[in-house]
Write a structure and sequence with these properties.
Layout (H helix, E strand, L loop, with lengths): L1 H55 L2 H23 L9 H13 L5 H24 L7 H31 L12 E6 L3 E7 L9 E3 L6 E3 L2 H4 L3 E8 L15 H38 L7 H42 L20 E14 L5 E3 L2 E3 L22 H4 L3 E6 L11 E6 L4 E3 L3 E7 L4 E6 L4 E7 L8 E8 L2 E7 L3 E8 L2 E9 L2 E2 L11 H10 L21 H14 L3 E4 L12 E7 L13 E5 L4 E3 L23 H6 L4 H8 L3 H14 L6
Antiparallel strand pairs: 1-2, 2-5, 3-4, 4-9, 5-6, 6-14, 7-8, 9-13, 10-11, 10-14, 12-13, 15-16, 15-20, 16-17, 17-18, 18-19, 20-21, 21-22, 22-23
Helix pairs in contact: 2-8, 2-14, 3-5, 4-5, 7-8, 11-14
Organism: Odocoileus virginianus
Protein name: Dynein axonemal intermediate chain 7
InterPro entries: CASC1_C, IC97/Casc1_N, IC97/Dnai7-like
Length: about 700
């Protein structure tokens, strides 16, 4: 009897299991049918949605056309100003400027510093041309020309500082301090700070040098204290020592793809234009045959003019359409190029060489020189007599090249250097010191010891074996990967991008074709920056943030140094372009699930955000998954326990983000999107492409 009861229970369990399995399969079949219908519906309207998106994305070539027009306009404005400064993009004008400045002699340090403002402005303009011009519009000869002009200006500026230093040192005896008997001079400007000390008394006990009202100075060995020398510290707030970064250029494969597209477009447009002209001519002939013979000659001419007007307009319209199509292709290719990852490091590193793909120089360059004191001016019968050395300003070699087998470290001890760190630069960790190796043309970390940094006083102290240019370096990826990000509309054609990292929170405002640092927090405390409230173009803004130590902009090599959540470039580009299109009426936000899905899908949160709405304490975000070709709302939310790609109830698949949000958006929100300024959309997209939030969060 017990055995019979046991079998009965097993039978009941089997029947129950089979029933549940059949119900599960039936539910799954219904779900699959439903999904198939939704996929078929998505496929059916795909072309229509992509065509509408193409029309909306016409804002990108329009914005690029405006940028081109602005470049031509600035050249014209410069031409009609006639202020004597050269146009940096014209080689002849730059060559004339450089040649004339080379010929100017006996310039004082103050005069050189004043002239340097124009020179630095020209260098900045040339760098901006190289960075702002789309890679496909840059010719190789132009890149060589602009970089050549930059290098010539940098070298000439430093040469001028050397010559002006020599002129000052010839007068050292007349400028000597009454107490010490030595000369000391500090010249400060927005771009450079110059410290010069001339050893006139050669007092062996005067080995500690501090420049008045500063913490900058040196501890020199006895040998230098008794020598005819001068010490110069030229702190340039810019870096003209590090080799120029290579200009981002497309590969031959990319160039050929764009070139083929251009050829096909030109051919198709020419065919279309010729057909239109033939049809217009036929129509014109038919209409002219029907004109009554008794009509006056004047009326006939009037009719001909009326008929020929559309013939002239049509080719112009088609020509514009072709130009915008080509621009659209160029812009898309340039955007994808921004997200291209390098396969390996660009060069082999020597021992102790600084990897400039991993580290960045900050706060400019400190040019440290020990100089031979030139012959001093001597008064004679109301005249000042001075001996001018033919070889000019000479460097004093320390330690000497021939040491006759002496223990160099004991006889020629290192020099202690104390430097003030530039106030406008942020170091999130203690800075490292690097010296310039003139022979190898790179920064190195050897020959430097006993580095000590006082963050409150912003003072760094270290020992240097021999004087040479030094700089402070920081890990370029210290703020990567990001912890979170958010993009929220603020006003008409104005958004706020917030990026949170381990050390800092940056808030960036974007409007029209400009960006601004709205606020910055360092270690959860408000931090003031010289960049706050300053509107700049996106490229200039990115350069300024990097120079301030606030680098949140990955390069093609960054993935070699940062653990990233890699997303396919084509998916990223499409996501950023469509997020930018929607940014005037929709807020976007980071999602933890973006790290779970594969590289061909991105996940983020979105919600409608109209300006008239009051700020919501706990806003209702929608979780979207986008693969570049398909967008869908997810059933899960940010607080769900497990990841699932299941479609949210009562939602559909769409081919674009635009049509996906359109399903749950108000008409007013969609009107705001369609009214967005093309330059604003382009600027938002550029900032998203430059930060790569979907891969680096």
């Amino acid at each position: 009897m017990p055995q019979h009861g046991s079998q009965s229970k097993k039978e009941e369990a089997r029947v129950k299991y089979e029933k549940e399995e059949m119900e599960r399969l039936e539910i799954q079949r219904i779900e699959n049918e439903k999904l198939q219908k939704l996929e078929a519906k998505d496929l059916e309207r795909r072309n229509e949605e992509l065509e509408e998106l193409y029309l909306l994305e016409a804002c990108f070539p329009e914005a690029e056309k405006l940028k081109r027009d602005d470049r031509f306009l600035s050249q014209w404005k410069h031409y009609i100003q006639c202020d004597g400064s050269p146009d940096p993009s014209i080689a002849q004008e730059m060559n004339t400027f450089i040649t004339l400045w080379k010929e100017e002699a006996n310039e004082t340090l103050e005069e050189v510093i004043e002239k340097s403002k124009l020179v630095l402005n020209l260098i900045e303009k040339l760098k901006l041309i190289l960075l702002e011009t789309p890679p496909y519009d840059l010719q190789r000869k132009n890149i060589i020309q602009y970089q050549g002009s930059i290098l010539e200006l940098q070298e000439l500026l430093h040469l001028k500082f050397n010559r002006a230093t020599e002129i000052l040192l010839r007068q050292a005896s007349t400028l000597a301090d009454l107490d010490s008997g030595n000369m000391e001079k500090v010249i400060q400007d927005e771009n450079v700070t110059l410290y010069i000390w001339a050893n006139l008394k050669k007092n062996p006990r005067h080995r500690s040098i501090r420049f008045s009202e500063t913490q900058t100075g040196f501890e020199i060995p006895r040998m230098l204290a008794t020598s005819d020398i001068a010490l110069r510290l030229l702190h340039t707030h810019y870096d003209h020592v590090t080799p120029l970064s290579p200009v981002l250029t497309p590969s031959q494969e990319h160039v050929s793809l764009v070139t083929d597209f251009v050829k096909e477009e030109v051919k198709s447009v020419q065919t279309a234009v010729s057909k239109d002209l033939q049809e217009e001519n036929k129509q014109q002939e038919n209409e002219s045959n029907s004109v009554h013979e008794e009509e006056t000659k004047a009326e006939e001419q009037g009719d001909v003019e009326e008929q020929t007007c559309p013939v002239q307009e049509e080719p112009e319209t088609t020509k514009y359409e072709m130009e915008m199509k080509l621009l659209s292709q160029t812009v898309s290719a340039a955007q994808e190029l921004l997200l291209e990852n390098a396969c390996e490091k660009p060069y082999f590193l020597e021992e102790d060489e600084v990897d400039l793909c991993q580290f960045t120089t900050l706060g400019g360059v400190y040019h440290l020189d020990i100089l031979e004191l030139p012959p001093q001016c001597k008064p004679m019968k109301g005249w000042m007599i001075v001996e001018i050395l033919k070889e000019g300003l000479q460097k004093y070699t320390y330690p000497p090249e021939t040491t006759e087998d002496l223990e160099t470290e004991n006889v020629f001890p290192p020099i202690e250097v104390m430097l003030e760190v530039h106030e406008n630069v942020i170091f999130f960790e203690n800075p490292m010191v690097a010296r310039w190796d003139a022979e190898g043309k790179h920064w190195k970390t050897d020959g430097i010891s006993n580095v000590s940094y006082k963050s409150e006083e912003r003072l760094i102290t270290f020992n240097l074996e021999t004087f040479c240019p030094v700089t402070l370096i920081q890990d370029a990826h210290i703020n990567m990967p990001f912890q979170s990000w958010e993009l929220i509309p603020l006003d008409v054609n104005k958004v706020l991008l917030t990026v949170t990292t381990v050390f800092t929170e940056l808030q960036i405002q974007i409007k029209e074709n400009l960006c601004m640092l709205a606020s910055i927090k360092v270690n959860n405390k408000k931090h003031s920056s010289i960049l706050e409230e300053k509107w700049m173009t996106p490229v200039s803004f990115i350069i300024a943030l990097k120079n301030a130590g606030l680098n949140i902009f990955p390069t093609g090599h960054s993935h070699l140094y940062v653990v990233i959540n890699y997303k396919h470039p084509s998916v990223e580009v499409k996501a950023y372009r469509q997020m930018a299109l929607l940014s005037s009426a929709f807020a976007f936000c980071w999602s933890k699930w973006n790290t779970v899905c594969d590289s061909k899908k991105t996940i983020f949160q979105v919600r409608e955000h109209l300006l008239k709405e009051e700020s919501i304490q706990n806003p209702n975000w929608t979780l979207l998954m986008f693969s570049g070709d398909r967008a869908q709302s997810l059933k899960i939310n940010e607080s769900s326990d497990a990841f699932s790609e299941a479609l949210k109830e009562e939602t559909e698949f769409h081919s674009t983000l635009y049509h996906m949000v359109k399903d749950f958006a108000s008409q007013e929100a969609m009107r705001e999107v369609r009214r967005s300024n093309c330059q604003f959309v382009d600027s938002v997209c550029h900032m998203l492409l430059s930060t790569r939030l979907l891969s680096y969060s």
